[in-house]
Fold Terminase small subunit.
Amino acid sequence: MPRGGARVSSGPAPDPNALRRDRRDDAAGWQILPANGRQGDVPRWPLDYVGTRERDLWRDLWAQPQAVMWERLAQHYEVAMCVRAIVRTEADEAKANDFTVARQFMDSLGLSVNGMLRNRWKVDGAEPEPVTEAAKTAPARRSARDRLKVVADE
């Protein structure tokens, strides 16, 4: 059995606000998604059967900013399977594996924070405050000698 080595989601997710931006793996860049979500008609449900809850969730998801990329990458089936997995987790008889599958779909489609980072997607206007020069420098640490206190004998 193989051990160690890189996995699809091993290591920390990329940080768009990292101080060092000259990394080789940053060459791919980040996709900026529109804050107001995907515009236009909702795509046709690609699977055979659609329930009421699935239809509602399908409409909601296709209005999200990430849907711009799903459309560009033709991920209609993946989104439909994610919808089906999420609806399955809402049932009383949901199993732990149902939650795992739903979470994995959500990560791969960028519906979680970690998924957004791994896909290198950012929502337009959701930028944190810029890092100032003062924030970049680490505060001076006091030495152990500085923390000692002289106590006078009485």
About this structure: Residues 28-128 form one domain. The CA atoms of residues 69 and 103 lie 19 Å apart. Strands lie at 31-33, 121-123.
